[in-house]
Design brief:
- It contains 16 helices and no strands.
- It is globular, with a radius of gyration of 21 Å.
- The chain is mostly helical.
- The two termini are 31 Å apart.
- α11 packs antiparallel against α14.
- It holds the Pfam family MFS_1.
- It comes from Roseibacillus persicicus.
Length: 428
Amino acid sequence: MTDKPLFTRLTQVEPSEAKGALISFVFVFMLMASYTIMKPVRDALPSDWGDVSLAMQWTYTFIFSTIAVVIYNLCASLVSLRRLVPGVFAFFATSFIAIYLAYKTGQVEVTLLGKIFYVWTSVFNLFQISVFWSFISQHYNKSESKRVFGFINTGASAGAIAGPLLILQLAEHINAANILLITGIVLLLTLPLIHLLNRIFDRKEQNKQTPPKLSPNPFSGFMEFITHRRLLGIAAFIFLFTGISAFLYVAQTDLLRDYSRAERKELLGSVELATNTLTILLGIFATNRLARRFGMATTLSLIPFLVALLLLLLSANPAVVFVLALQVVRRAGNYAITRPAREILFTAVDREARFKTKPIIDVMVYRGGDVVWIWVLAFLGDAWLKLGVTPTLCIGAAVAVLWGIVGIFLGKTHDAADAEEGPSKQPS
C-alpha cells in the first residue's frame, strides 16, 4: 500500500489509469469553464422576468432540448462516434459565436436575445456533460468507474471555479457578448483532447473485440428507454432531482428580487465558489471511497435524505442566507457524490443506451422535469393555492424523501447485478 504513488493514495486512481483520467479531468474542466463563464450572466436574468415568464423560458428550454436530442439520435445512427463527439462540441462552439455576432450586429432586440441566450445555454449545460460521460463511460468497467469517476468529476468543479475567476480578471475589458466568444473558443480547444483520449483508449482496448456499431434506427434509443426498467429508474431519479432543484431555484429567485442585479451576481458567484470548492474536496477524498465501501444504495440516497432534512429545517426560517447555504450543500453533494454515482450506473448498460438513451434521460427528462415542476410550483404559489414558503418547502422535503427511496432501489439493483456477475467486465 505504502509504495503506491501519492496520486493513487489520494484519488484511488491506479497508475495505469492516470493519464486517461488526467486528460479526462482537463476535458471536463474546459467544458464546465466554458459554461460557467456564462452562468452568472444567465442566472441574473430570471429575477427580472416574473414567475410566468420564467416558466415559459423553462418550457422553451424543454422544447429545444427535445429537438436537440432527436437530432443527436439521428446523427448517432448515421455518423461514427469518432466524428459525433467532437462534432457536438464544434456545433455548440459555432452556435455561441453566432449569438455573439448577433449581439455585435444589433440585428436582434436585446431582451429577446437575452431569452434566447438563457434557453440555449440551458440546453448546452446538460447536453455537453451528457455527451462527455457517454464518451468516457464506454471505456471503463464497473470496478474502474468507482475508482476513476469521482476524480474525473472534480475537473468539472475546478472548471466551474476557473470560469468565473477568468471573467472577474477580465471584467473591465469584456461584456456579455464577448463572454460568448470566449465560450466558443474554449469549446474548440476541447477537440484536441478528444483526439488524445481516443488514442489512449485505443491502446487500452487494442486486444479487445471491436464493439458493434450503433443501430441505424434513429428511434432505437427511445425504444430502449421505455422498455428498460433500470433506465426508467434512472429517469425517475433525475425527474425527482429536478423537483428539488426547482423548489430551491424558485425560493432563491424570489428572495433575490429585492437585490440589484450586481448584488445578485455577487451572491450567486459566492455560491458557485463555495459549491465547487466543497465539490473538489469531496470528489478527491470522499466520493470514490464512499461508493466502494458502502455501496451504491448509500451513495445514491445520502444527499437526497440530507436535503430532505435540511429543507424541513429551512422551512422554519427561509432567509436568503440559509437558502443559498442549502444550495451549496445540495449542489456540492450532487456534483461530488450523486452525479458520479449516477454515471457509474451507465457502465452496466450497452452502448446503444449509453449514447442514444442517455441524452434522452440527461436532457429531455431533466428539462421535462424542469417544466413539470416549475408549473407545479406556479400552481402551489401565485397561480392558485397561494401557499407560503414554509408549506412549499415541506412539500419539497417530501419530494426529496421519494428521491432518496428511488436512489436506494437503483443502488441495490446495481450492487446485486455486481454480485451476480462477479469480477467486472469491460463495457460493451
